[in-house]
Design goal:
Radius of gyration: 28 Å
Order of helices and strands: HHEEEEEHEHEEEEHEEEHEEEEEH
Strand content: 25-35%
Distance between the termini: 88 Å
Strand order of the largest sheet: 1-6-10-9-8-7-2-3-4-5
Structural class: alpha+beta
Largest sheet: 10 strands, antiparallel
Amino acid sequence: MTYKKKAAVLSVLVIVLALIYIMTFVFDPENRSSAAFAWLDPSLLVMADGVEISNRESRIVLRRKNDVWLVADRTGEFPAKQDRVADLFALLTRKDNYPVRASSSEGIERLGLKEESASRITVRGGAGLPLLDLLIGGTNALGTEVYLRRAGWNQIYSAEDSYSFFTESNARSWYNLRLFSEGNLDLNGSRRQVAPASVDSIQQAEISFPAESYILRRSGRGWIIPGKESIALDAVRIEAMLRLLLEAEADNFGVNAPETVEASITLQFGNGSTRTLQAGPLTEQNNRYATVSGSHFFYILSERTFNNFFRESSFFFD
């Protein structure tokens, strides 16, 4: 037999053996079964008051107080993005078809589902009892599906990998860092009613910082600076800045309020309510500590974010 013929035969043999292995795994009677179910019964959501999300490097703890979800760490409890928590529960309570891929100890280890090495999502309720303890393992060769199993169960399932979005995220991705969030909390953790966060509802913005202090006041369809009414202002630029302010996020939560207040913006809304952002001097880390009225949390602002809000009045001249 010539070299080329031997090589061709060996190539075919390798392909056949690979196909046999794949077909054995995919079409094994154990792996052909599937079931349609939800990992978490939707009726249990009312009981859920805690979530723990962990991987080999980090652990995120969410707690629900007065129907508001918080991110808890060693420094305290901070408001979470309620929509992000809702997305997690939507994934866990969604009824889907999950094919069984294996149920052996060898499969558990090979697919990254040993309890000490797998990522994990645990939902707790009542007295801390687990409503769901879900292990998330490795992905398939294409990285499109992930392997899953309940803690204590042997059956291994696969599903489209929407789980890594939650298990591979850091704590900051769960924080609600909106400065003017309608979900601000009082000291007891309950929702507080705040002024509507829309540019159209803002009637006045009082801006003060070392370079200048001035007021932007709505007048008819435009804006004026009291005392400088003869100067035409660019309404588009003003409202773009106010929209940026209402939608702005801090870089992180701080542990202290600013020792001194160097700059402030007070927004007055159409219903008579006001909200004030106060910021301290620039720190060695090139950021600023800040507070917002209506919230007992402290924030850290980057200098870039700060400069977007505190501009000299001439910036708004038409």
